[in-house]
Amino acid sequence: MSAAAQPEPMVIDVNDAAAFATATGCDAQAIADLERYRSYLAEWNEKMNLVGPATLDVFWSRHAWDSAQILPLAPEAKTWADLGTGAGLPGVVLAILGKGRPDFHVHLVDSLAKRCRFLSEVVTGLDLPATVHNSRAEDLALTVDIVTARACAPMSRLLGYAQPYLKRGAVALFLKGQDVASELEDAARTWDFEADVSPSRSDARGQIVRVRRLGRGRKS
C-alpha cells in the first residue's frame, strides 16, 4: 500500500439551502430537486430504513454537502458508479448537480430490491441522468470514470467491489469516517494499492480516499 495525506481543507458549515448553493455554485433548479429528494427520503423513511430519521433535520450538511464535495475532485468525469448506494448517497446528489451537463451519468448500484424501487421513483420523478442497477456491484460490467461509495463497507471489502471498475480505468473516490487509517491498514493485508487521503469538507471527522491503482496483495 502507498497512501499519502493531502493538505487539510477547511470544513465549510452548510446548514441550509442557501449555504449549499454558495458552497457548490449550483442553480435554483438543483436546489429545488434536492428539496424534492429530501421529501422523497422523508416519505419513504416511514416505510423502510433509508437514513437515520434525525439526519433529515441536517440534510444539507449531513447528506447533500457531504455527497456534493467529491464532485470538484473529478471535474472532468462524466460517468460515475455509486456502489451500495442505499438511499442514493452520494449518487443521487451527484446526478442532481450533473443534470444538464453533456454526457453526465450516474449508475446507482444496490443489491436490495426495495431500495432500488425507491431510487427508481426518485430518478423518474426528478428526471435525473441516472440508471438504477439492482445488482451486486462486482457483478456489473460498467466502464466509468469514477467509482464511489459512502457507508457501504469496510475498505478491505469495498476494494473488492471496486476492483472490476478500476481494472477498466476508473478512479475511486470513497467517503469514509474517522477510522480510515485502520481500515487502510487492514486492507493492505490483502490488497496492493496506491491511495491518498484528504479531510472531508463537511465533517472534521470524515475523510475522502482516492484510489488510483489496485491489485491483489499477499496475505500476511
Written overview of the protein:
The protein has helices at residues 17-24, 28-45, 59-68, 91-98, 113-126, 155-167, 180-187, and strands spanning 2-5, 79-83, 105-110, 130-134, 146-150, 171-176, 191-199, 207-216. It is α/β, with parallel strands linked by helices. The protein has one domain (12-216): 3-Layer(aba) Sandwich (Rossmann fold). Strands 1-7-8-6-5-2-3-4 form an eight-stranded mixed beta sheet. Strand 2 (79-83), helix 4 and strand 3 (105-110) form a beta-alpha-beta unit.
Task: Please tell me the CATH architecture by its name.
Answer: 3-Layer(aba) Sandwich
Helix/strand-derived category reads alpha/beta
Give average pLDDT, whole number. Answer: 94
Number of helices: 7
Q: Main β-sheet, in a few words? A: 8 strands, mixed
Helix content: 25-40%
- Radius of gyration, taken over Cα atoms and rounded to an integer in Å: 17 Å
The first-level CATH class name: Alpha Beta
Task: Report the order of strands and helices.
Answer: EHHHEHEHEEHEHEE
Principal-axes shape call:
globular
Strands ordered across the widest β-sheet: 1-7-8-6-5-2-3-4
Low-confidence spans? none
Number of strands: 8
- CATH topology term: Rossmann fold
Distance between the termini: 13 Å
The total number of structural domains is 1
**Beta-strand share of residues:** 15-25%
EC number: 2.1.1.170
Enzyme class: transferase
Keywords: Cytoplasm, Kinase, Methyltransferase, rRNA processing, S-adenosyl-L-methionine, Transferase
Main location: cytoplasm
Can I get a quick summary?
It comes from Phenylobacterium koreense. With 220 residues, the protein is α/β, with parallel strands linked by helices.
